[in-house]
Design brief:
mainly alpha; 21 helices; repeat; TPR-like_helical_dom_sf; PPR_rpt; transit peptide
Length: 378
């Protein structure tokens, strides 16, 4: 039976008087939530489900749906109602962790922390998932001192940090460019028997590349396989970007070949990097080969890629090629932003075709865009 038929079927089932169990109701809730009809699911739980039936799983399905849609305050009210009912209704650590994470994602840090302490007061013991949620939020807010306090509290309470815990911290310090702290955490991680995973390596390589230490990033990349980790598309994109910054075009080709051998399919971000790098150095022949390969793989170029290609053609005076790509954008339904128009206008001006430049100025004005182009800006 298709999932969309579930609500109607369940409605008929209710009228038959046949006994329904918690599994049946939970399946209905999951179906309604997947269909973005969470309010209906909550209504069934509160008003149509026998009081003795709902358990923590029934509530959790609805809690997660509301959290995913950014309605954590409503979830908090539901959570507290569960706690008041007690017995089999009492929220579990999974329920609390879900709502705490929801508050953090909505930027409600104080509410998340208050709920964490409330959970402990109710005798619910935090798990590694709960602590990871708090550490991740602190790291994303660049409050590394507070993240370290949570880590110490976690260990003190007998909860063993896992790879996710250390990845959050490493990512946080990497963003701040604090390489010594990254190295320290990596050492602690290994001393605790927690093996770095692909996320760890990607964070390390990103940090090294941002700090001009590409050679070390390359060493980490090639050590992944030795340590039982297969580089993913993010690993490749990080290294490609590092090579692009240094203009190492040959290394980029070698890495692409390795990527193909490893069966890793490049995403739009990878093609962005490759096309931009070759366009920057005037190698439009290679850039367009990557462009065509991207299309063959079923990826749709975005405005940024078209701007990169059109800008390169304009600088080279290949205005017919630039116009072809401009028209292709229209055919593909890619949004035409002001930067694209300015690029075309200044390209024509820089190469002595004021008539075409005026045509594009008229087109731009017809779209309600106002801007005075300057020579040599594209």
């Amino acid at each position: 039976m298709p999932p969309r038929s579930w609500p109607a079927f369940f409605g008929r089932l209710l009228k038959t008087g046949i006994t329904k169990d918690v599994v049946t109701y939970s399946s209905l809730f999951k179906c309604l939530c997947d269909m973005k009809r969470t309010e209906e699911a909550l209504n069934v739980l509160l008003h149509k489900m026998p009081d003795d039936l709902p358990n923590v799983i029934s509530y959790s399905v609805i809690l997660k749906s509301f959290c995913d849609s950014g309605r954590s305050q409503l979830v908090l009210d539901l959570l507290r109602m569960m706690a008041e009912k007690g017995s089999g209704h009492s929220p579990s650590v999974v329920s609390y962790s879900m709502v705490i994470d929801g508050f953090f994602k909505e930027g409600e840090i104080s509410k998340a922390c208050d709920l964490f302490h409330e959970m402990i007061q109710h005798g619910v013991v935090p798990t590694v998932v709960t602590y990871n949620s708090i550490i991740d939020a602190r790291c994303k807010a660049r409050a590394m001192d507070k993240a370290e306090v949570v880590l110490r509290s976690m260990v003190h309470n007998g909860v063993q940090p896992d790879a996710v815990t250390y990845n959050c911290l490493i990512q946080g310090y990497s963003t701040l460019g604090q390489l010594k702290e990254v190295a320290r955490l990596l050492k602690v991680m290994r001393s605790q028997g927690v093996l770095p995973d692909v996320v760890t390596y990607n964070s390390l390589m990103t940090c090294l590349c941002k700090n001009g230490r590409l050679k070390e990033a390359v060493v980490f990349f090639y050590s992944m396989a030795v340590n039982g980790q297969k580089p993913d598309v993010i690993s490749y994109s990080v290294l490609l970007h590092g090579y692009a910054k240094e203009g190492s075009l040959i290394d980029m080709i070698d890495l692409c070949e390795r990527m193909a051998r490893d069966g890793v399919v490049p995403n739009l971000h990878c093609f962005n990097i490759l096309i931009s790098a070759y366009a920057k150095y005037g190698r439009m022949d290679v850039a367009m080969l990557f462009f065509e390969d991207m299309l063959k793989k079923g990826l749709n170029p975005n405005e940024f890629i078209y701007l990169t290609v059109i800008s390169a053609f304009c600088k080279m005076g290949r205005m017919d090629d630039a116009l072809e790509k401009f028209n292709e954008m229209i055919d593909r339904g890619v949004p035409l932003g002001i930067k694209i128009y300015i690029c075309m206008i200044e390209g024509y001006l820089n190469h002595g075709d004021s008539v075409k430049a005026e045509e594009f100025i008229t087109k731009m004005k017809s779209r309600g865009i106002r801007h005075r182009p300057r020579k040599g800006n594209c």
